Amino acid sequence: MNNTSEITVEKTTAGKTTWQFILEELKPKGKIFTPFNIISVPIILLGIVLIVIRFIYGIGSITNLTQEVPWGLWIGFDVVTGVAFAGGAYVITFMVYILNMHKYHSIVKVTVLNGFLAYVFYAGALLLDLGRPWNVINPIIGNSFGTSSVLFLVAWHFLLYMMAQLIEFSPTIAEWLGKKRAHKILSGMTLAAVIFGITLSTLHQSGLGALYLMAKDKIHPLWYSEFIPVMFFVSSIFAGLSMVIFEGSISHKVFFHQISEKNKKAHNSIIRGLSKICAGAMFAYFFLQILVFVHGKHWTLLNTGMGYWYLTEMIGFVALPMVLFYYSYRRNNILLIKIASIITILGIIINRLNVTVIGFRWDAASHYFPSWMEIAVTLCVLFIEIWVFRWVIRRMPVLSDPPSWVTKNK
Amino acid sequence: MKIERRNFLRILGVTGVSLALNKPLNAKPETAEDVEFYGILYDATRCVGCQSCEYACAESNGLPEPTGMPEVGIVRKTDETRRTIVNAYDTSKGEVYLKRQCMHCNQPACDAACLTQAMHKTEEGPVIWRGDKCMGCRYCMVSCPFDVPKFEYHSANPKIIKCDMCHDRLLEGQKPACVENCPAEALIFGKRRDLIAEARKRIVENPDMYVDHIYGEHEAGGTSFLYLSPVPFEELGLNTKVQKSSYPALSKGFLYSVPTIFVLWPTLLLGIHEATKNNHPINPEENE
Prior knowledge:
By secondary structure, chain A is an all-alpha fold. Chain A is built from 15 helices and no strands.
């Protein structure tokens, strides 16, 4: 990706209307033929073609879903795993606005932006998976509320949380457009949005796990327990923070010229702090897993194929990164923290897929494996999200300092 | 503590929103005892595997004519073109046939799972699917312990296909098509309570002929479709690991915690915020 050091925030004052300004901003900035673009554009185009095919010939035309396994990669990875990674937004806003840990203030905007885009695109991916998407408004407008459904709760929470995140991020949009009055009003709404957002996140992060509570006979007993919701919630804390560390390190390189001097200095200290929190959250999670395992009395299952896989997940992708996080926090080893975050991210992917896809109908004669087309559509969604993210970072004061009128007014 | 007007309104707003949202989140009570459901009793000792029910079902529901026959060793399954199926099993008492279709649970997992009430347990007993509400999320398929709902994967306007106990016919005072067309009287239709009494009577009168178990009396919290069999049900491929309590009860605990969190969390968060907001960092450089 190419870097643009130019910050365009003050442009609006040059006598243009807002719409003229937005139209101008829509044009691409930076080089067109970058390695990222060359890889992502063909996949996005392919994905769009596949999506068209899916809407003409049905979901079965491009997916390997069966009558026994009705939810595959698009739910198990895009939605369930993606939302866990988007958990960083509620954890960071909790630390900054509720606990008033000012040190982390500089990463709030970019984390909330990431979370917001993740929800928009993963909820979008959900629409692709709906057989009858034209009825998607039914649970919203109130003509048929399925109030006993966990999915009803999750759907509403997605919608409301997206709004809360948009409000949290909106002051930055106002700064970009130079709207001073709107900025003042929107900034005043931040705390309410944060409190509302954290409450929603608690419930739908755990709710995604609770979706599978009724599939008791279908999920491998090593991954099924009545504590799935608690597990999903606790693991979303370090899943989100690991993503913040990982994504922050990439942004730090790619958008280096846009990051303010102050934030560059704070970068390592922030990563170290997050590493400590990750280690703590993972310890709690690991302990919970052990408790649930012991209470489940599944000792004999350990000596099976799925048992080895379970041990791999617990030791290799929870205990190991947990120790690494703590060790590298003590030794102030930033590189090792980043490695630990990558292992954790892989571990979360493995865990969510174990519940939703790999351990789901593990005993069936034929197993579900995603088709290449499902994977292509997933990548398409991911790449479009990165494109939008890059577009926003290059234009709005997310990583850079806000315009001077914001700080002056304080 | 002094509550300013602004803060008061803020608290009021948060509480109001929480309360407004809590309302629809309560799990709905569905007591099997209050409602007298209709049901079907299937007696495997009488079934001759003639497939009349399959043909009647296909004709009644506009589905293609059934293919294949009950054959030992081959397990046919219901799918998007057939709502019921008869299979043959080689058992300790010779060849036994078994009809499969929706169990019409008293407290169906699919109904509890459905976020648009498309899957619906009717007062009469059948669990029906309503296309004008369904958004095709297939959560009913994930939740159903009997793997009953089937999805038309190769359609741009896909439907969920499952037995609805001929709900329309019931409303007109007729019996389900399969019951009406069963020449061997293996299927009888009636109030669930009466069917259980009848099944018990058959077991008592012919204890050598039946296993002492009515499948569906307690399975998954009780179902409207009941089975009698000459052999243990696991020999007939029925899911005998199914729990005896209802499946929606599994997510009830989570759903009940929702209102609690919705009220406590905002209060707690606001409290922590107020308590920590005057924490000035020692190093002002770290602050913004």
